[in-house]
Predict the structure.
Amino acid sequence: MKVLHIITGLNQGGAESILFRLAIFKQPNVNHIIVSMMDFGVYGDQLKNDSLEVHTLEMPRGHITISGLRKLWKLIRKEKPDVVQTWMYHADLIGGAIARLAGCSSIVWGIYNYNLHSSVTKKSTRLVARLCALTSRIIPKAIISCAESSTKVHISMGYACKKFVTIPTGYDFNELRRNETSRNILRNSWGVDANLPLLGCVARWDPLKNHGNLLGALAILQKKNISFRCVLVGPGIDKSNYELNELILKNGLSSQTLKLAGFVDDIPSVMSAFDLHILPSLGEAFPNVVIEAMACGTPCVVTDVGDTAIMVGDTGWVIPPADSDKLANAIITALNLMKDSKAWEERKAACRSQIVRKYGLERMVDAYHTVWQLASTTGKPG
């Protein structure tokens, strides 16, 4: 089976990481071709290093070019894929339409968003999502969603409900596990004492991630004289971020309390270093960071967005979005449990056990392949 993937870009993100894991998973008789509408991003070179075929359309962010569309059309006509798998709204709409024009009707959309509220999502993205809803009965043969919550949201928007298949993200848990050596090295590099509770948040700078909610909760903890340190990790999380630094000043947080670590690509080491991972988001569908933290035995405090409550179950703490007081209270509850070493070790073990049982990589790969096989029952481009 030849599967041609079309994705908006290959920078770090949830959908991008799922595509990466699917493509590098070695399975006989499946050939992946990846097309980025922009550039190679973060994952492009890694995919090429794994001997995968990667093409770029070199479209500027937020803009469509005639040359890029022509290149995509020619590529589909040349490769004659059994299935075209698109990823995220822009690629779903544009890639799906071009695939149809190129003669391929075996198209599967991928949806990895949950919150389309005007306060957190650009107007252009909301417009494309609505256009996808209108064309969902015509372009794709199936629509893959990464979360039950996301499926429900999009069906309520008018997407073709009978075409949805929910496939939770899968992970390679042989690589994603706790590492005590890396934990100690990273905590030392951050200047965190071995016995000091370390809170952490891995998220890019984005309104949906709602770092302000977490900073407000940390300010409450600081006022209560609770001992802790917090490290924020992610693209755009550094001293050059004016808005973030203004929020830190507004909440009166000191460098002794909070550290901005920026982008770190060794996520298992980061999650191993944390004692508690916090997701303060306004909206998510299936946040990978929660899975990554729990797989490393790190309990989580999460806002009730997307499928987070399903993920953490009774191993963590789930609170309403945008409520710094309740977020602070949940963190305090976790910190109190941490004082009971036996109970905390049991909680850490329960985190990994739950995730490994429900979100294995092979289960996700098999589910995608089943959808592709069903979608490829009609013709390829002539």
